[in-house]
Amino acid sequence: MAIITSYFKGETYGLLGPQMAATTIEDFSGCECIVIAVSREDDRIALKKALADYFGAHQPIIGFSALSAREDLFSLAAELKNEGTITILGGPQTNVDFNGEKGWREHPHRFKGAWGSFSFAVQGPAEQLIPLLNLLDTRDVGSIPGVLIAETDGTVRQNASKAWDQSTLGKVRWDNIYILANSRLIPLTISTGQVLQHIGCPHAARTTESRIDYPASINAREGKSIKLPLRGCSFCDVAVDKGFHGTLDTETVLRQIRCLPEIADGRKIPFELINEYPLPILPALLEAVHSDNIELSQINLTLRADGLISGIQYLKVLLTIAARRGVFVLLSSIGFESFDDRILQNLNKGLSVADNLQAIRIMRDLKAEFGDAFGYSSREGANHGFIHPTAWDSEETAAENQKIISLYGLQDDILPPHSTPLVIHHASALGDWIREIEQREGFQWPRYGSVIGWWDTPRCGHD
User: Fold this and answer.
1) Do 314 and 283 form a contact (C-beta atoms < 8 A)?
2) Domain boundaries in the chain?
3) Measured by CB atoms within 10 angstroms of the end CB, which terminus of the chain is less buried, N or C?
4) What's this model's pTM, rounded to 2 decimal places?
5) Arithmetic mean of pLDDT over the chain
6) Of the candidates 98, 193, 204, which has an alpha carbon nearest to the alpha carbon of residue 151?
7) Domain covering 2-187 assigned CATH 3.40.50 in the classification
8) What is the pLDDT of residues 409-445, one digit of tens each?
């Protein structure tokens, strides 16, 4: 089996989700399973030749995971399926992408789903694939948890998923990922891994009623807005997919850390800790790592600005321990997203510009205090969240963002080399926002696969 996943050309980071899934499949089914990282630049014909060489006389079974809404990978899956390959959709947003956008039958311009491109889909933990692999040629999947299967008319049957099981979340092979080179698959050496500690995001654990403004491009002066129930950030499709399932126990996290490759001096490669509120429990984790005789080189933290502000005392303890042990702590990504309060409110960040600036002051002060043990800036490898353009950009928001950037020198250490445009996945809260505006105003925005093209001028007329 192979799992195809989206990747950026020239990178060397690991992919915890697909690589852990491949590890689980291989360990529990006895079926060899590799991950193939495919960039947009890879040649489709060369990739298909490499796949044919890999499978040889075996029945091709290809999973697709973490596709980043890439239409080329959805179409590749359809092409392979039509040629006799068993294609399986898994990973983030599986069920909503397989089923399609809400109301697509009544509104043909909406994303009709990827059910035609895949033989099956599996929502949730990878171990649900194990019994499925024994029944691939029968379609008798009625009792298998997490499986989705479509009829020819797009009617989808979906089985309830299993709960997450920590016993399968402690092991990952980091040598099972390949890239395409000269029409063949070659191993990709990983320089940065990931360790899972939180499943989902605590910000998505509860629902709040919020108002999201109309796009600035239409009726901007009328002050129209849409009231919606939101879980987490309005643009976040992971909030819809996972919500928040809690924290893994320390032993499971340690098992993952033990799996990480080592650099030349015997220490573990740098890794990102997947936990947006990690600071209260990190000092204890670092002590547990030391007690287990594991040597670390670098921990990369992705967290929210409010988590940094509330956890400052824990971070100082962590940095004291890290400095003593020769471990570098990098705040690799803080989700600032904007420095305009109106945009932050529409993104439902639960934060203000004042919160973002307070977090920046804290990071700069900590750098002065802890020096070589601590990093946070773009020149040290950090890539902080800054979403631009957005649907609410105006002369006023642009002026406010630029004022804050210039006043606080954010271009020197905070802003990433390139901003991230707002992406509206059809299953995010902003997808509901777009559909409500379409219904109210008689507009239709184009769809590009599973993404809604908010940046285009909508056309008038109901379906």
Assistant:
1) yes
2) 2-187, 193-413
3) C
4) 0.94
5) 93
6) 98
7) yes
8) 999 999 999 999 999 999 999 999 999 999 999 999 9
